[in-house]
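ok so i was messing around last nite and threw this chain in just to see what happens. nothing serious, just curious
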Amino acid sequence: MAVEENLKDTKLKVKVNYGEKEGKIERGSKTYGDVRHDATKEQLDSAYGHIISMQEPIGEGCERITASDITKTE
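result:
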């Protein structure tokens, strides 16, 4: 029995640093949906750069998040 994987969703998660508040570094993230499944790492990095350039918090990186259906086939 074979196992099949079908890609359902791809998102871009942008991680940011809001700076120090009350002695602790405050971090956050924002996730953007509707990312093309075939987007290259260069395209994602470019999108990250554009997003960060329009925001006040300091960018700390980005992640590609994917969701897949995994099913058994006969």
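not much to say yet. Strands lie at 2-21, 24-32, 58-73.
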